[in-house]
Structure formats: structure tokens, C-alpha cells
Design goal:
Blueprint: H1 6-29, H2 33-45, H3 50-62, H4 65-92, H5 100-103, H6 122-135, H7 139-158, H8 164-188
Helix pairs in contact: 2-7, 3-4, 4-6, 4-8, 6-7, 6-8, 7-8
């Protein structure tokens, strides 16, 4: 096997960037007026994890001890994911946000462009962190939340604020954080039997 040299790494990075931009442009080029409103609304609802915290609150109110523990695991996972993305990853990787105008993202899709760097996606990280944190002890609910998490992650590309690679990296961070958050909660806070 030949060791990987810096030229190979540079070419790989260039090819990945090209693929990322090509998928972004393809998404921007598909006319989806009905989906635009839905995905814009979904994307906004996940700002500052409001969507996930609202679901966690509902779980705590209507659920039993295991459901409350799952909600707590999901919220703990969001904390881990958000810290990892915002304090570590975004400080290391300085990828600029996509230029929606240059890439032709329709104005009907636009949400506020965040001022932070693009890589990785914090919305995707929080979405998958919450879903995985819940899924560890409530698999059926976790499966439904994974679908919503995937929709939130996709909405970030659809609205033009992230490249697909940003979203994939955020999702991977979120899934890892979800497992860590759930593990921490289940081993620190025992479930009381009613």
C-alpha cells in the first residue's frame, strides 16, 4: 500500500467539495413550491432546539418514568452535540456558508442565514442527538424522531444554509452524542418503578 500524500489528500478534498456543491445545486434546481413552505417552517422550528425541547417537555408531562428518562437523555444529548459542534468543530473548521444567490436557491426557501461557520450543521447534530438519545430507551418513539431529524437535516440544505456534507457531519456527531447522553442519564438517574 502506498502512503497517502498531501497531493492525494488535496485532490480528495477537492473532489468531495465538488460533489457537495453538485448535490447542493441539484437540490436548489428542483421546483418544490409546496415543500418550500413546509421545510422552511420545519427548519425554523428547530432553531435553538425549540422543537426538540418542546417534544421533551411533552414527553415529560404525558409519559411515565421511562419516557421522562428518555426525554432527559435526549436533552442531555443535545447539550453534548451543541457543545461539540459550537465550541469545538466550528472553531476548527472554517467553512463558509453557501452563497444562495450564486447557487440559485429560490427566495421562497430562504430562512435567516446564520452568522456561524457552515461545518458541521448544528441543527442536524441536535436533531439526531435528541432522536438517538430518546431511541436508546424508547425505540419506537426514537424511530419516529429519526424521521423528523432527517427532515430537519434535509431542510437545512433545502433552505440553502448548509451544504450536504455539513449536514452529514452534524448527523454523525448527533448520533454519537445521542448514545453518550442516553448512557449518562441511564447510569446516573435510575428509573423509579410506579
Amino acid at each position: 500500500m502506498t502512503p497517502v500524500d498531501s497531493r492525494s489528500t488535496g485532490k480528495l478534498r477537492e473532489e468531495m467539495r465538488g460533489l457537495d456543491e453538485a448535490v447542493y445545486i441539484a437540490v436548489a434546481g428542483v421546483k418544490t413550491p409546496t415543500l418550500d413552505f413546509c421545510l422552511r417552517t420545519l427548519s425554523r422550528s428547530a432553531d435553538k432546539s425549540v422543537l426538540w425541547l418542546g417534544i421533551a417537555g411533552a414527553m415529560a408531562i404525558v409519559g411515565g418514568p421511562r419516557t421522562r428518562q428518555a426525554a432527559l437523555g435526549g436533552v442531555a444529548a443535545i447539550g453534548i452535540a451543541s457543545s461539540t459542534v459550537n465550541i469545538v468543530a466550528k472553531q476548527v473548521f472554517h467553512r463558509h456558508r453557501p452563497d444562495r444567490e450564486a447557487f440559485g436557491v429560490p427566495h421562497t426557501r430562504h430562512v435567516s442565514m446564520p452568522i456561524s461557520t457552515s461545518f458541521p450543521s448544528g441543527h442536524s447534530a441536535s436533531a439526531f442527538a435528541f432522536a438517538e438519545g430518546v431511541a436508546a430507551s424508547q425505540p419506537a418513539l426514537g424511530a419516529a424522531l429519526r424521521v423528523v431529524a432527517a427532515a430537519v437535516a434535509y431542510s437545512r440544505v433545502h433552505t440553502g444554509v448548509h451544504f450536504p456534507g455539513d449536514v452529514i457531519a452534524g448527523a454523525l456527531i448527533g448520533m454519537t452524542a445521542g448514545r453518550l447522553g442516553s448512557f449518562a442519564v441511564t447510569h446516573v438517574i435510575p428509573v423509579r418503578q410506579e
